Amino acid sequence: MAFKFNWPDFTTEFVEQAKQLLTTALNKSNKPANIVDHIVVKDLNMGTKPPELEIMEIGELAVDKFRGIFKLIYSGDAHLTLQTKVQANPMNSNKSDVSMYTRRGILAADQPLVVPMLLRLSNLKLRGIIVLVVSKQKGITLVFKNDPLEKVDISSTFDSISSIQRFLQTEIEKRLRIMFQEDLPSIVHQLSL
């Protein structure tokens, strides 16, 4: 059985709290060595298209508690912008990418180059199985039973350097997979209280 629900205009308070929780989650684990500052969620837009949920099983249904298993599909217009600082090291980039920034293939620097970086995550596509528990006393618990990430578009300050763009795409996809499994359940729970 499937159903539709209204996707609200989320309040400024909700969005700010979600940004803070995401910022905390993004900074709690080890980051790649070339990220030299905190990762900050600068913009969070929940989009206008709701996820699709299909009921697969209802395990418990009471006045003050619900437990069910759902198939979730999301292909909406939500997006997220992150800001941090990175140590740019063109020596590690693909030679063809670096050659356009150097003269006769010579590149030298006497100190690290730290530059600001903006990342935008958009066109998120998810398909997963979730266990959802809603309790009046304990809030909402949402857990993915599988890796739901199918696709995400990553654009950044460094899109013109293909090796860095590929690295960012791979690294962010890997971190999103971990976040959906480990961090999202606690973020949803905290937002529900």
Automatic annotation (TrEMBL):
Pfam family for this entry, one: Mdm34_N
InterPro entries: MDM34 (IPR027536), MDM34_N (IPR058825), SMP_LBD (IPR031468)
A Gene Ontology BP annotation from the UniProt entry: mitochondrion-endoplasmic reticulum membrane tethering
Xref: PROSITE patterns: SMP
Entry's Gene Ontology cellular component terms: ERMES complex
Domain SMP-LTD: 1-193
Signal peptide residue numbers: none
Localization, UniProt: Membrane
Entry annotated with the keyword Transmembrane: yes
PANTHER family on file: MITOCHONDRIAL DISTRIBUTION AND MORPHOLOGY PROTEIN 34
Protein's UniProt name: SMP-LTD domain-containing protein
Originating species: Rhizophagus irregularis (strain DAOM 181602 / DAOM 197198 / MUCL 43194) (Arbuscular mycorrhizal fungus)
Organism taxonomic ancestry: Eukaryota, Fungi, Fungi incertae sedis, Mucoromycota, Glomeromycotina
